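Sequence in, structure out. Go.
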Amino acid sequence: ERFDDTLKEVEKHSNNLWRSFYFLNFLQRVTFSMQTASIILFGAYGLFMERMRPDTFIMYLTVTRILASNLDKLGYMYSRYASAITNARATHHITSKPFIKELPNYINFTDSIEFKSVGLSRGNQEVFKNINLCIKKGEKVAIVGKNGAGKSSLLKILLKYNNYEGIVKIDDEDLLNYSPKSLRDLISYVGQDAPLFNDTVRYNIKYSNLECPDYFMIDLSKKIGLHSSIVKLRDGYNTVVGERGKYLSGGERQKIALLRGILKNAEIFLLDEPTAAFDKEAEFEVLSNLFNYANKKTIIMIVHNFDLLRLFDRIFCFTNGSVKEIFKPEELFNEKDLIVW
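Output:
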């Protein structure tokens, strides 16, 4: 989200810059055209009244064209100069940042993920506070709660996408002591609206693991119910999906994103409603196969389908800015003001 916001800001300034250049170019061309038209008009009048010689008229036209050409080049040089100044300022902004201590790029996850008195705010609005969780390696954990309770924000803390209060530890080591790269190598994150590249189905699936053999990719594709849809496409796995996967259905896009996350073979899976576009029966089957395949992996998933909860070892419910562990799915219906399903 922060990347998209920054990109929008860059796009906005770039559009303003090039709009100014195009306006300048238009103004130059109008001025030159009026100048040429004036010379032709007065030159014709001078020739007709025998007040100007033909060679003088031709000289004026030639000088005007040379002047217009050089001024046009001057406008182009100004645009290049403005772009260079902008790039130089951006480079200076990056290089002038204080040196940040190099953090380790590898995590050997062996024990647990722990949240101690963790809180998160956006501006003056408190999202949640005093969250205390301990998730052991290999556990399958469901997170439930109504929209806006902070479920997705909690997952993104583990990726260092959100600033927070309190302490988060992996194997008794503070999260802040790990580099973002080490965390993103450790974690496979699949969101509800995972982006696809304007490339082939095969490339989008294998993006997280380009060395993965096709037979393994196809085997997993069959297990999550994707293969039968892909072989019906015009070029099968070589079909170009279009920008953000516009030539595929919502369910197909989510299955590709989920399969890409599986092929990464990370130790921790963070799943933010990655099966929201599936029907309930397909959703249960896909996740059952995923859990069987990743039975030794740690899975933390945001869930809105009550029937899926029996697949998980533990259930945590977000409500009123705090979290509570639920030991039986039926207890969710006793939570006051909880709207989950």
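Check: DSSP finds nine helices and ten strands in the chain. Residues 112-334 form a domain with the Rossmann fold fold (CATH 3.40.50.300).
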